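Hi R.,

Here's the input for the beta-D-glucopyranose complex you asked about:
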Amino acid sequence: MIKRSFHIVLLVIGIFSCFMCNSAVAAVGISNLRCEMLYNPQGISTARPRLSWQITSDQRNTVQTAYEIIVASSKQKLTRNEGDLWDSRKTISDKSIMVNYAGKPLISRSQCYWKVRVWTNKGISEWSNQPANWSVGLLTPSDWQAKWIGYEHGFPWDSVSKFSRLSARYYRKQFQATQSIKKATVYIVGLGHYELYINGKTIGDQVLAEAPTDYTQSVLYNTFDVTADIQRGDNVIGTVLGNGRFFTMRPKYKPKKIKEFGFPRLLLQLEITYQDGSKKTIISDDSWKFTADGPIRTNNEYDGEEYDATKELIGWNKTGYDDNNWLKPELVEAPGGKIEAQMDAPIKIMDTVKPINIVQLKPGTWIMDMGQDMAGWVQMKVKGNRGDKVTLCYAETLKPDGDLYTANLRDAKATDVYILKGGDEETWHPVFVYHGFRYVEITGYPGAPTISDFIGQVVYDDMANTGQFETSNTLINQIYHNAYWGIRSDYKGMPVDCPQRNERMPWLGDRATGSLGESFVFDNENLYAKWLDDIEQSQKPDGSIPDVAPAYWNYYSDNMTWPGTYILIADMLYNQFADKAPIEKHYASMKKWLGYMRQKYDKNNLMTKDKYGDWCVPPESPELIHSRDSSRNTNGELIATAYYYRMLYLMQHFAVLLNKPADVQLFSTLALEAKNAFNHKFLNKKTLRYDNNTVTANLLPLYFGMVPDADKKVVFNNIVNKITIDAKSHISTGVIGTQWLMRGLTDFGRPDIAYHIAANDDYPSWGYMVKRGATTIWELWNGDTAAPAMNSRNHVMLLGDLIAWFYQDLGGVKADEPGFKTIIMKPAEVAGLDSVSASYQTPYGLVKSNWRRHDKQFDWVITIPPNSKAVVYLPVNSFSGIREGGKRIPAASGFKYLGQDKGEAKIEIGSGDYHFAASNYLSKE
Ligand code: BGC
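And here is the predicted structure with beta-D-glucopyranose in place:
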């Protein structure tokens, strides 16, 4: 009897505990496994990757307490939970992002399959069920047996001059696979751009590959698993090489300014493992064949691409093609840079745009309107006779007579040509160039083109759109839309200034703070990490850092504001993504740069060298590009010294992170000296104004913490007066001041002024651009009237800190601990703005802040991702009127009241969904 009841008890316990474990398992899950921030990357550049995952939970306050990671060398082993490469075992830790692989040493070509499970305070997850994997690339130079091939001359139909025309080069190699294939991997460097084919099939969906670098410093390769593409028997591997940045757009022209790398070249290695384990490697060498007499007659990023379909090489990338009269490539020099895996996402066709209108300007000439300024190209459908020639010219705006306005493209021809082969309908778009445009002039089109014959293809780096932002103000929403389009237009394996004119250069200054705003909108971590490498590689031995990196243009002008972006972005990557590696990796070069600047330009602790001033302030008359009015411009030495202080401050912070006490001391001493010298020179002790009292002159020291405490109020008032009285509540800053303006006004208590500036629709303002028909952000506040020489309609630099302010202050979503491990939720409430919905994919998962006020009530819907928490500031003066999920706070669960802070209730919440309603709301109206 006793025995029986004992059994029943056991059974009950069993059922109960099983129920418990089921409910726990159901509540907590794992998703979004990433290796080096990428999903299932092939051919990564490191043997010690960082692994990240996200936790899902149907319960609030979910915090990870431990994890277990298994990494196996095969899928089968992983299924059997055999971590032959690594079994971390249960590891007590709340770390769920950037966990270092710590298993058996990995080597080139290692295949790794992985999964993870977590223990949380709310239960245990199952093993992650998505199949996750990575493979290691070729880590050492000796892994490469392939030889660089190319051809160091032009052909009779090419022209290597300022407006160079160089035809694409088609390479092919036929080979035999004698057995059935177990695994096949291609590693390719195709400079400047490549397309890759196996047996006629395009490999990958990347375009304009691979990411551009200074090829004398580093060369990036891409890796593809082509196991399914190789067949037993005969195979053909083919590549087309375009020019990209390798064969520059303006060769033999301004050689001191424009860097040249030479003619296109290829390095390719195809490694095949047969089922029996034996191996075969196909390498680029002089046994390949090539021709430049194919359909792509020229491809020049500024000038466009010409495609003659009558010259198509039918079947060239398949077996059985007769390549007898093709040429033998030359074995050529390596470009010089170290060969590394590309870790930033490839460029792809990321979106499409349907044209909204097409009109006939004159017989045979049509103007098509895409309705949106964009970067990419149009794909065209056309039917006509062999030899018919269609010309597409791209521009951002139109002249009053409806014709294209191309003056602001400077000497970029921005023209694609397609020659028909005739017969059936033909579909075409260029592959080795892109354009920045809204309008397309079409000539030579057989018959009358209609909008359904064209589609715009938007081309940029394959990065997830991580943020959504919308408010009750439609103008602000349109400005955000314009910014979104501008940002995506200007990512091209590096951030460039503009996509249309003869420039498209990775100017550092344009992204100083903009990169922070952008990081809310796009998952741009790896791109910016790559750009820091570009910047480091452009550093001269003496420490100088250029204004453009990679240094395709030679601009080593030595200033604080453009090169300082190097330090600002490392800081951004740490705060937004918890990525400390860039700080570790670049610390020495950053220190070297600061040392160089100090030694060369520091006079009595003032940084005396500047170049750009507060670039592009609103000028005094509409046609001017740069203001000549000294009261609008800010002293270069003031800007340089304030930035110098900021850089020293950040370096001091980095030195703390990296545990370098001597450097902490060094940077803090230098910072203090710079601050004192700065105040001594620029702060007028009587008026408490900085220098000529521009907004920028006062804002930089105030925001950077250089102003003596006792003077802060007055200095802030200088800014307020300058804006509200002199500038009539409009923007008066350029690229420099605008980087700190919106957050500065908000942090010091006047978000209403920031909002006013943001919501203006008359000149100068972002809203003015919108009102004048802009669908992106202009290079100049007066972009509609200024001279064309420097007047792009698609630049992001004037955004300053606007987008960061949208998310951090209007949405109220700010990282407190790096990577949003803790979040500060503190919306800046301003009169006239009734609601904001902001959401952002943090490394931990989605954070959401949707607030609305109505009928004296403040409603706030919040989501905090698992394993993260937030401190929430509710705009109420007492706790009693707050409801959460309809209940009074004490009855609702999952948060801590931390007290009142400057009239706001401060509450700590864990992960989960919340709906706060505050009836005793302190309206700012
Ligand atoms: C570029 C800018 C850049 C500036 C600096 C311009 O031509 O387009 O974006 O920062 O020059 O000189």
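One thing worth noting: The mean pLDDT is 95.

Cheers,
M.
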